Amino acid sequence: MNHLTLMAISLVLIGLMFVSLYIARLIAINRRRRDAGNKGSTEVGFVVDTFHDLVSKLKEKERELEVLRKKAEDRASSVEIYNEDILQSVPSGVVSLDQELRITKMNQAAEKILELKESDSIGKKYSDIFNEPVAGIISKKAVVDRAEVGYVTKSGKRIWLGLNISLLKDSANNIIGKIFVFTDLTELKAFQSQMELRERLSTLGEMSAGIAHELRNPLGVISGYTKLLSKKAESALQPTVEAIFKEVEVMDRIISDFLSFARKTDLILSEVNLKDLLNGCISNVAVSARKVQVIERFNSLPVIRVDDVLLRQAVTNLLQNAVESMPEGGQLTVSCSVGDCLDISVSDTGHGIPENIRDKIFLPFFTTKERGTGLGLSILHKIVISHGGTVALESGDEGTTITIRLPRDAIVSRQF
Question: Which parts form a coiled-coil structure per UniProt (predicted)?
Answer without folding.
Answer: 51-78
